Amino acid sequence: MIHRHQLDELAAAGRLRGLHSRAGVDFSSNDYLGLANSPRLRDAVLDALLSGVAIGSGGSRLLRGNDPEHERLEAEAAAFFGSESALYLSSGFAANETLFATLPQRGDLVVHDALIHASAHEGLRCGRAERVAAEHNDADAFADAIKQWRAGGGTGRPWIAVESLYSMDGDRAPLDDLVALADETDAFLVVDEAHAVGVYGPDGRGLAAHLDGRDNAIVLRTCGKALGVEGALLCLPRVLRDFLVNRGRGFIFSTAPSPLMARAVGEALRICADEPERRQALQQRVSLAGQVLGVLGIPASGSQIVPVILGDDARAMRVAEMVQQAGYDVRGIRPPTVPPGTSRLRISVTLNASEADIRGLGEALQAAMRAA
Ligand SMILES: Cc1ncc(COP(=O)(O)O)c(C=O)c1O
User: Fold this and answer.
1) pLDDT digits (tens, 9 = 90+) for 153-176
2) Contact 325/368 with Cβ under 8 angstroms?
3) Catalytic residue among 117, 258, 329, 343
4) β-pairing, 85-89 with 109-113?
5) pLDDT mean across residues, the chain
6) Residue 144 needs a FRET pair 20 to 30 A away by CA distance; which of 167, 198, 283, 358 works?
7) 245-297, pLDDT tens digit by residue?
8) Predicted confidence (pLDDT) per residue in 286-297, tens digit
9) Pocket around ligand 1 at a 6 A CB cut-off
10) Atom of ligand 1 nearest to the CA of 232
11) Pick the catalytic residue: 192, 212, 267, 329?
12) Which pLDDT does position 301 carry in this prediction?
């Protein structure tokens, strides 16, 4: 059987994945602000439940699934981020897939960063536009791709697709240069703020908050990472929201997200505005992690995501396992999630790990890197 055969091949290559229970201090989640289990989010959900907010939506938004909680959240999110409109989808994956499969048209060109998330690739595969990868974080490469395409007779609209903060490297896109390029070339700019919303910017509005309200920008904010809930908000011009509502297959043919979760996301946005101390505490832990890991020769990424690039797949997994055995939940990441030869540990600094935990992780990592 083909499936068994392929699984056996993965196992032989040491790449078989499995699901494991959570264990150890959290250095691997995206719950950066520690909101997922916070009393305030719990209370908001409990209040909503007791006041009759539905758990399930019961259908597609276009049929009976459109709940007042979805509409309230979208209005709140548009006001919070300053976008003309917002659309709440059930995950960041669904949002990226629906966006890229639907909005770029035949004859358009999507230039995406080489390290863009799998969900964007998935949408682009289903879409009608041409697509090309630009070298990671190289604004000139984006400009060259658009120039070449125009010179070759491209007449549609260019699209530029990036993440503001990359999920596996923790580095940032050159947003200012890309905004200027989008303006110069009449391109749409799509910025995935999955790992930046809640963590950066005024009130935690992210690294791309200044783009909201532009008619050539779309900002994706996932709600299952720093916001501690689930789903994703697309913040975009109203005409594009209307287009997704009419043509986005991932929106139309899918049960609307839980109204209860919509209520929770609204509360998470309010927490971001009301509790700046969470962001400050996280930045202190990021600085401490930078010092502790710096001693081991691991360069700081400048963000809460710190890659420890070990190169060799097997060594990365061995080091991860030793650190896990010492009580720290750090995961090894291998190709195809990251490019070949860059297997790594992905250390995620969150408020779920204390300063003492960060120091302990440094010691465990030092021992593991020596031994492996
Ligand atoms: C950059 C980026 N975009 C989108 C997603 C998908 O978001 P979600 O987990 O809400 O499906 C992820 C998740 O890992 C991500 O890292």
Assistant:
1) 999 999 999 999 999 999 999 999
2) no
3) 117
4) unpaired
5) 97
6) 167
7) 999 999 999 999 999 999 999 999 999 999 999 999 999 999 999 999 999 99
8) 999 999 999 999
9) 91-93, 96, 117, 119, 163, 167, 192, 194, 222, 224, 232
10) 10
11) 192
12) 93
Ligand 1, pocket-test mutation among 119, 223, 225, most atoms within 8 A of CB: 119
Cα–Cα dist 305/287, whole Å: 12
Cα 191 from Cα 162, distance rounded (Å): 5
Please, which residues bridge with residue 192 across strands?
Answer: 163, 220
> What confidence score (pLDDT) does residue 15 get?
86
Q: Measuring CA to CA, how many Å separate 348 from each of 115, 185, 232?
A: 18, 36, 21
- Ligand 1 centroid vs 194 CA: distance in angstroms? 6
Residues paired with residue 355 on neighbouring β-strands, in sequence order? none
Strand partners, 332: 345
DSSP 309: E
Model confidence band, residue 20 (pLDDT cutoffs 50, 70, 90): confident
Specify the pairing of strand 217-222 against strand 188-192. parallel
pLDDT at 323: 98
**Tokens for 181?**
């390029």
Task: Determine the distance separating the centroid of ligand 1 and the alpha carbon of 24, expressed in angstroms.
Answer: 23
- State yes or no: is 225 an active-site residue: yes
Amino acid of residue 302: G
- Do β-strands 232-236 and 85-89 pair in parallel, antiparallel, or remain unpaired? antiparallel
- DSSP, collapsed to helix, strand or coil, labels residue 248 as coil
Average pLDDT over residues 125-134: 98
User: Which atom of ligand 1 is nearest to 231's Cα?
Assistant: 10
Whole-prediction pTM = 0.97
Q: Calculate the alpha carbon distances from 113 to 46, 118, 160, 288 in Å.
A: 41, 12, 8, 30
